[in-house]
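Dear all,

This email documents one entry for the complex benchmark we are building for the journal club exercise. For each entry we list the sequence lines for every component of the assembly. Then comes the predicted three-dimensional structure of the complex as a token string, followed by one or two observations. Please use this as the template for your own entries, and keep the labels exactly as they appear.
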Amino acid sequence: MHRNILVEQIRKKKTYLCVGLDTDISKIPPHLKNSSNAIFEFNKAIIDATKDYCVSYKINTAFYEAMGAKGWDAMAQTVQYIPGTHFKIADAKRGDIGNTSSQYAKAFFETLQFDAVTIAPYMGEDSVRPFLEYENKWGIVLGLTSNKGANDFEMLSLQNSQERLYEKVLTEVSKWGNVNNLMFVTGATQASELENIRKIIPDHFLLVPGVGFQGGSLQEVSRYGLNGDCGLLVNASRAIIYAGKDEHFTTEATAIAKQYQAEMASYLK
Amino acid sequence: MHRNILVEQIRKKKTYLCVGLDTDISKIPPHLKNSSNAIFEFNKAIIDATKDYCVSYKINTAFYEAMGAKGWDAMAQTVQYIPGTHFKIADAKRGDIGNTSSQYAKAFFETLQFDAVTIAPYMGEDSVRPFLEYENKWGIVLGLTSNKGANDFEMLSLQNSQERLYEKVLTEVSKWGNVNNLMFVTGATQASELENIRKIIPDHFLLVPGVGFQGGSLQEVSRYGLNGDCGLLVNASRAIIYAGKDEHFTTEATAIAKQYQAEMASYLK
């Protein structure tokens, strides 16, 4: 998806919500569990219930891999079912030497037809580049993540520079691509860092997880993260998809997604 | 697999070779390409041809994912076919927030029954821990990798410590597990660093890629990396599995694997 189309969708629908499909068979409503294709049935219902209030879906590959080839099939069906108007993210945190990263890019951009893949930057430039070589496809590189472990390495200060590791990642990686093929993951639980992040990368889109279940504040994220093109995709997963526990789960998913959309609309003014 | 069994196999067979199954449909011999299950047929032949000369197989998940659910099936069949005497590594470079890493651990340790998974450390402790909670299973965390991009972040010096990032990763991560559930990836193309690495983690097993096609020296790696329990798994992928290009490819794979084994036997004395 071209950046212009994403920005147009955000403006038209007044939302920058990304719905995370971290679908766990043990957490879906009981009446769906016996379906032969329960994961896809659940995702289909969630997509129908939320698509008017979001511009993106993020599939957390771990939950599908845990089910083996069957899970991989459910992932493929889900990507196909997501409307073409929505930005499709494989939250896969991949990254390896060049010839291997090329295979991952092929897996997610060609075989599965996602628009974007999340990437772990530890292995450096040649591990990231293969994801940036596809037209209208995106690499979304981990900057500052939303978990406690972000303090272990990402926040460490580097010698001979005024930067912490995650800042160096933003500075360096942003040279390898541009605002049309590169985004960064910056966790909502570190909203106070967003002001700083926007100084380093004012124009890139940020994928922001950690709102909702992990405790990040949408208001704070929007205050520090929004730029002239919106520049944010804020993800909520569990808070939306598991809002309901029974056969009315889609009603509750819609309600929560709509709530997020309404709040986002107010910040987009 | 328990560490004692791995060490016993190494001593008995006088080899610490790991054969990397980076199986690419475009590179396998023409006579196999038309098989309905070409990837598995190729792997099966390579395993039969090399199992006497190695103690481990490493499956590079990217190559299987590039083929979608069919590839995931071929990976499952391959893991099942590898003899129980051999240490089975998923080279997957995973790592995510805790509840997601748990799903990856489930995917590779329960659904697919690998012995070990490679892990990217960028996201810190809670992204690594779920892989260390299984008895006789292993997390293999990226330390210093074999690619050029290792210089971008892994080699950066940290402030307030005498360490570079990859050294800090070795120091910190080694506190989260022990020598029975944790190994590190240290690339053969950086053999001179192995002397230093052995000062930080003298007792851990190291998974060493980069020998063969990437240009690392087995002699150097062995000189600096071997410890009292061997402590090395040296991987070769392309140099072995694509040694032959036609229907005699297994003869050539055997010859190369046997060459590595003979050299390793000389270093183990």
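Observations: The beta strands of chain B are 17-21, 56-60, 87-94, 116-119, 138-144, 182-186, 205-208, 232-236. Residues 249-268 of chain B form the longest helix (20 residues).
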